[in-house]
Amino acid sequence: xxxxxxxxxxxxxxRPGGGRHDRRFKYALVAPSIFVLLLIGVFPLVYLLxxxxxxxxxxxxxxxxxxxxxxxxxxxxxxxxxxxxHTVIFTAVALPIELLLGLAMAQLFIDRLPxxxxxxxxxxxxxxxxxxxxxxxxxxMFNTRFGPINQIIGWFAGEEVNxxxxxxxxxxYPAILAAEIWQxxxxxxxxxxxxxxxxxKSQLEAAAIDGAGYWRSFFKLVLPAIWxxxxxxxxIRGLDLFRLFDIVWALTKGGPGTMTETISIFAYVKGxxxxxxxxxxxxxxxxxxxxxxxxxLALKRVxxxx
Amino acid sequence: xxxxxxxxxxxxxxxxxAVKGVDLEIPAGEFxxxxxxxxxxxxxxxxxxAGLETADAxxxxxxxxxxxxxxxxxxDIAMVFQNYALxxxxxxxxxxxxxxxxxxxxxxxxxxxxxxAAQMLAxxxxxxxxxxxxxxxxxxxxxxGRAVVxxxxxxxxxxxxxxxxxxxxxxxxxxxxxxxxxxGKTMIYVTHDQIEAMxxxxxxxxxxxxxxxxxxAPLDLYERPATRYVAGFLGSPTMNFIDASLERGNxxxxxxxxxxxxxxxxxxxxxxxAGREGQRVVLGVRPEHMSRALAGDTRSGLVRYEARIDLxxxxxxxxxxxxxxxxxxxxxxxxxxxxxxxxERIGLAIDMNRVILIDPGSDAVIG
Lengths: 306, 367
Description:
heterodimer; A: mainly alpha; MetI-like fold; 13 helices; B: alpha+beta; Rossmann fold; CATH 2.40.50.140; 2 domains; six-stranded mixed sheet; about 25% helix; about 35% strand; elongated
């Protein structure tokens, strides 16, 4: 075989079936999913952007270009800023508590205890409940006259109590946070339990013999091992908390006044109760931009998006 | 003084009685190998010494102090694990330094000790790497380095070489033994590999079903096993066990196989067997105690056995020949060219000075 013959054989082998046809085929394969993505992802987003530059309300289908009108209103809207602040407060309080509580529970259940499976199943139940149902249930629990919580406190107090859990300004936050933490700590628990059971036991034994105490082992061995899972759990719960709606809606509808209004509730009220469509579009767009920035920063920090 | 003393130790895993009353005393500086089949309790025993398992009964003394209730870190021990158990998120340096840091050793002292240990194990060029960047043999060196740097009273090895390939295993075996000679520390080494046990140990402790079957120097156990189990466990190829009976010969005792052959025992060995004439025994012959019979060989104690070779397995220097002896298959370890092909009939010389006789009822060696 001459050199040029060999060359031909090699070239033919490198591209079986011919190059051009092959390349078109792979685009054909991904085309349907690209189309669906454009339809349900990009189109609404672009349309949202367009609407946010108009001034559509319930009474006025004004489709003329209004420039940054809605955004100017948005920046000046103290109610929006407060809603954003409430959302940040809920997230900043609930997220660390859920994380630490879930981690502690996972540590507790990592050892083989009798009845372990049953307890895990029971503890995970709150996650299975739809948030709006959980909110409604907690609303009943907190009911001033008939709720079991006031009843039980009454037994200890020795007299009937009328604590206004969902109305008293100093109690609404604890009440909402209690319901939120009750429902979502098991989620953290479950993920962290799975992560913890993946930690190599002989490493911990080696550390125990080496003389490391509980905290040194935890920070040097356990935490790095469960960190990828933990980071994802924090991200998921953080995003969930940022769009917190159901539980708050069921318990207080954002009240008293707008004291517990989250950004999601604010957007809902503006869009579907007051029908300020274009203004709501601006709010939604702001939330999207905000979350995208947060997620990108978080992913970069965790280095999951390599 | 003994570094480790174990008295009447018991350990249960639920229903399973893993360690059934072990008494063991290990003098300072000795290299002891705990050997046995998987499930014999050797690893459990080691983990109980380390404090990773709690003893259900009995006492463990390290350096004269009862340590049953001490945490692993307070027992003055260091351990090397089968799967290395290196800390994956730390560099090799930090892995080795971890124990010293946990014990609040001054920084300069840590650095000196880590570098010295690394040098001793020829891993000083790997200190800035992570465990995932190392090969199996390097990982094992780091794991040993992590133990060595601690300067503990007692070193425990839990099957440290079983994850390595054969060649590396031979190499590391030698290194661990040399390490023991250099450091002079008391070491306890668990393995299921009888060759590791034989080559490394000052003393072998052979465990079977949670009990000590026999302990002693490797060659003692090899040459003077107390039971059929010990005789069969040590040595490769394994000892041949042939059913036979004892009968009175012309001037000494004979071992009579069921094919009618009589093998005369040397005079020196008959005294111990007095009164056992007519009894059934099991004859134990090691493959290397059989050789090709030479004309005119008059060494005492050699008896001739005519064998028809069924299977020939050359290994280079030696050839393993399988043949029927009595009612079982036996293997003889011959010189390379003693036998050439199956079906050959040859005369074998059995060294009756070195055979053992076992009581088939109790499995104890009787002579």
